[in-house]
Amino acid sequence: MDEEEAPPTAPPPPPPMGMAMGSSPNTAQVNPQWTALLAALQAEEHCPEVLAWQGEIVDSLTSGLRTQEQHIEEAMKGAGVRENLFSAPLYQMEVARVRYALNSYVRARLRKILKCAGHLDSEAWARLSPHEQTLCSRYLGLCARYHHAAFLQDLPPPFQEGDLSADNAECPGAFGKAFTRPPALDDFVFARVTKDLGEIVVDTDENDRGGGSKTTRLAEGDIHVLKYAAVRPLVYSGALALF
Q: Which of 27, 122, 183, 231 is the 20 to 30 Å CA partner of 67?
């Protein structure tokens, strides 16, 4: 008597985005793109100004999310449902975790962009993504038109002047600066040193007529509380990681 052929089973979904699961917890491997996203998210949440857009990381993880969701959907079809009944929800949780981190990163940037939109100089403008630049320009234009319609049009002509050309502004005009705030570059931030930097000037004593400055030694792994304005180049280069 011929044996009945076993029904084909759907392949299990691939390892999660953030954690490539092995045979035991000791063999787990962290996705470097996931680690980079978390570092970028922490930096954006604690930095007074908008940092450079990490488009390569975001695009890579977004593409991986779509692929992961397709594999999960295929694994839960037909005969594969029973075999993947326990594992598939774990992968779905991992997908949700990565998507939440991506959304948090974008929201952290948008909050600062809208708050400081009128004070973004050409250097800060270059750190925005094309979509963020479009959003910023349209936001300034909408705010300018609202203020003009709400009260400026009722003022005498000499007082109606305002910059309504924000749609073309790489450096938004004075009108945009009137209803937004500049980034607080003199705030103090927590920073972890990622490589040995030696003696670094971290503050200038304004009360010292001789132009004295304060220095400190920054060694790899150290954690310091520093005035952001004094260490901006180190944050840009990645020598200091904000958290």
A: 27
